[in-house]
């Protein structure tokens, strides 16, 4: 029997506010344990939470970026659970009136676009972190009270590729709106995967398991692949999938049962009497909407429709806002969009990767790339020297025109000089010359390569091509 996979995600995103969600403690990753704490986020009896307005605003920004409806009324609830990472024995979260609802996101994979429904986004407090060392356990409450949003999707994913694309799209949107850096490796984005399988064509959803402890986007893809096979095997053997929470072990590449699935009633949700409900007027929502920057989807559309770029380029260029800004600023200086795109998609990421830098650390200024492209367009240098100059600018800075002058990289287009080299090389290599005349046209490439090399890559490749052909024929 053929099976199809159904996946829904619950994604936790830490919001990059200055302070925590219910107190004035600093919201900072990586500080010494228990230094950003106070009686409120340590859950001392008698303390009272005060909702951070910024956390609400960030949640609404996220909701608007993911095309959600923002209700005017929402409230905070207590979700009971007992564990030392949250000493109150309940988490302040949202239950039946979340901050945002009914959104959607379009994701792109090699198989084409696909729409993922967003069920809801609610805000809540993060718990502290347990640290296990030498047989003892410690609690670091720095993370306790860090503002989180939980984004719950509809069970709309069909495969791991769509999940990967969704998480990348989510990260890119959150980066654009300045809400979070969404680094799974640092825990600022955490993702639970709900997954089930069903016979192809069946309407009813299969029984799902929920996968926890997924620490990277690629781990999510591996966990999905493993778990769907496991479930199919259980069904093929005549068994039943048990609804449960399973833990992904990335080293072993397997999931294993962790606990039975808890139901909503297990949490004894009830409205938090210490916090007033959140009222957002239509004016306030419109104000937040107006403050959003141009988002990746709108940029992508503009790049293809107005700049004539291929969809593929538009997607890559808009993934990070720093990359998009560099691209746009260079084009604004008059450089042709497609040529800028080639540098920004290929040369720049390669150099950044080699240097261990992020797009935000790009040392090249738009004027410098525009100048490299102008030198190529004017025929002052050929296009491969252009890449060389760009690399030099990346490594040591400087003015491209100056670099070309100092290093003597000007393109040689003097037919006489090129012809002399061509003559000599053809005379020295009678065998490939003969091959060419016998119909092996590949021999042409051999000579062009040799001439370019002899002229230190500076010759005009078109002229070389013409002269080699003339000489051989
Ligand atoms: P709970 O709150 O108990 O975790 P929800 O019904 O809110 O359950 O669903 C949580 C997540 O599980 C959502 O992302 C939803 O899309 C997904 N989901 C629900 N049913 C299935 C299923 N049969 N297969 C895969 N995912 C599912
Ligand atoms: Mg759940
Ligand atoms: Zn505090």
Oligomer type: single chain
Spans where pLDDT lies below 50 across 5 or more residues: none
SSE string: EHEEEEEEEEHEEHEEEEHHHHHHHHHHHH
> Helix content range of the residues, please?
25-40%
Strand content: 15-25%
Mean pLDDT: 91
Structural class: alpha+beta
Query: Between the first and last Cα atoms, what is the distance in angstroms?
Result: 64 Å
**Are any ligands bound, and if so which?**
adenosine-5'-diphosphate, magnesium ion, zinc ion
Count helical runs. Answer: 15
What form results from the Cα inertia axes?
A: elongated
- Number of separate strands: 15
Task: Give an overview in words.
- With 473 residues, this protein is of the alpha+beta class.
- It has an 8-stranded mixed sheet with strand order 5-6-9-1-10-11-12-13. A 3-stranded antiparallel sheet has the order 4-3-14, with no helix packed on it. The chain has a two-stranded antiparallel sheet with strand order 2-15.
- The termini are far apart.
- The chain is built from 15 helices and 15 strands.
- The model has no long low-confidence stretch (mean pLDDT 91).
- The longest helix has 20 residues, at 217-236.
- Strand 11, helix 3 and strand 12 form a beta-alpha-beta unit.
- It binds adenosine-5'-diphosphate, magnesium ion (MG) and zinc ion.
- Zinc ion binds at residues 20, 23, 25, 37-38, 40-41, 145.
